[in-house]
Structure to design on (441 residues):
């Protein structure tokens, strides 16, 4: 067959796609079909554990037997993912008889449709066909993916606002489509196509930047950052991420806002709302995860109250990543079956403290204390006074996942003094529990 394939974007939502075979090929093919909303009928006597999990979760229909002709009833597309060439040929012959396109893993030349190598960037899907050579398709796809990554990287972009990464052939409203299903609930007016004074309003994304290493932001967080008009950043966000912003992006350094902490928060809320109401796409970049001692909830409520659509992108929190960076798993089989994350910013005896330190002292598991250096002496004293053994291992990780990371290992009774002696400073996470030595050789 020498003629060129004709590329199409199949809109499979709610449409029956039959996958024959339950092995490695099917495991790779099924997720994209489900992502497209296809009604997947999987015919195979046995499934890989990954497919089994999807079947058990009700995401697809599994017929636990070999293929039978009636399986094709109502199908729009067939994917043959079995090695047996005779069985595959018979499926594909039946499909051809019924004018159903058929992809064949075993014999591309006999197939009536090919699956391309794909890369996705937000709403953009790039599909590459390699003229029957899947490896060539993948090589070209990888090159395009790299180009798109560079293109979307603010450092490499031209100074003129370049919004092609968010271009929406189906109309401008799609720009405001919530980035994940949960966002819709926060945005009851639908996709946020509301207008103020004739102009369209923008939106806000609360994005977790991760603990410090710029590579620990999520893929979605990074993409939104590259699309932002305004970035409002905390002190703890990785500087390198900001270094790479386009020159035309307005960068608001939230840590430089004066006034007291509550006044500063109001000010930040106001900046988010004002810029979004003026039509900007605002990324509020926050250290770690936005909802872990990050006041993300307050910002979300402020936006919601002003009718501004908000998306929240979770981040890798330092409460888990900082211990991990020091070789400490927050749970470990046979060592700790729980971990508790607590803020130490108030002293245990402070009237405003919401933490039951006496109760925490009775737990055996891992205690992770954020913002706890200043009050560490009082905290460890309180934990010991209420029953946590003084010799419980403790560790402190300063500036985890950055080049300046420092780790100190100690015990609960000595850790506060050791921190002073070593001159450790915030930001630091304190870990208390036997997990501190769980991975020691
Ligand atoms: N939302 C953040 C936490 C904000 S509170 C998160 O999920 O990580 C700020 C505290 O987080 C700091 O005082 C410190 O205890 C901790 N922290 C943040 N980044 C850190 C890092 N790279 N290393 C150690 N601790 C860190």
């Amino acid at each position: 067959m020498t003629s060129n394939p004709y590329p199409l974007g199949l809109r499979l939502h709610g449409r029956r796609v039959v996958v024959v075979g339950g092995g490695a090929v099917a495991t790779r093919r099924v997720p994209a079909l489900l992502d497209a909303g296809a009604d997947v009928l999987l015919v195979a006597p046995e499934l890989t554990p990954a497919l089994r999990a999807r079947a058990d979760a009700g995401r697809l229909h599994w017929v636990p037997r070999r293929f039978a002709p009636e399986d094709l009833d109502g199908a729009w597309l067939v994917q043959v993912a079995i090695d047996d060439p005779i069985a595959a040929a018979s499926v594909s012959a039946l499909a051809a008889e019924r004018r159903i396109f058929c992809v064949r893993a075993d014999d591309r030349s006999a197939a009536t449709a090919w699956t391309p190598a794909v890369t996705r960037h937000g709403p953009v899907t790039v599909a590459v066909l390699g003229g029957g050579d899947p490896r060539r398709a993948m090589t070209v796809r990888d090159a395009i993916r790299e180009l798109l990554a560079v293109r979307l990287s603010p450092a490499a972009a031209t100074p003129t606002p370049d919004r092609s990464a968010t271009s929406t052939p189906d109309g401008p409203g799609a720009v405001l489509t919530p980035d994940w299903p949960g966002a819709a609930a926060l945005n009851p007016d639908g996709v946020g196509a509301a207008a103020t004074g004739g102009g369209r309003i923008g939106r806000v994304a609360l994005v977790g930047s991760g603990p410090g290493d710029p590579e620990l932001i999520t893929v979605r967080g990074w993409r939104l950052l590259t699309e932002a008009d305004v970035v409002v950043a905390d002190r703890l966000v990785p500087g390198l991420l900001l270094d790479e912003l386009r020159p035309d992006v307005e960068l608001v350094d939230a840590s430089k806002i004066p006034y007291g902490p509550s006044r500063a928060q109001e000010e930040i809320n106001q900046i988010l709302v004002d810029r979004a109401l003026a039509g900007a796409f605002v990324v509020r970049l926050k250290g770690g995860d936005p909802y872990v001692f990050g006041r993300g909830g307050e910002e979300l409520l402020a936006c919601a109250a002003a009718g501004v659509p908000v998306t929240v992108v979770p981040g890798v929190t330092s409460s888990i990543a900082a211990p991990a960076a020091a070789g400490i798993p927050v749970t470990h089989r046979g060592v700790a079956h729980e971990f508790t994350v607590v803020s130490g910013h108030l002293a245990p005896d402070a009237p405003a403290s919401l933490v039951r330190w006496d109760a925490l002292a009775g737990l055996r598991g891992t205690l992770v204390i954020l913002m706890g250096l200043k009050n560490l002496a009082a905290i460890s004293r309180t934990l010991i006074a209420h029953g946590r053994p003084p010799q419980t291992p403790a560790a402190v990780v300063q500036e985890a996942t950055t080049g300046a990371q420092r780790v100190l290992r100690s015990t609960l009774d000595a850790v506060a003094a050791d921190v002073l002696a070593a001159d450790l400073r915030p930001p630091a996470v304190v870990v208390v529990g036997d997990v501190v030595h769980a991975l020691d050789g």
In short: Residues 114-171 form one domain.
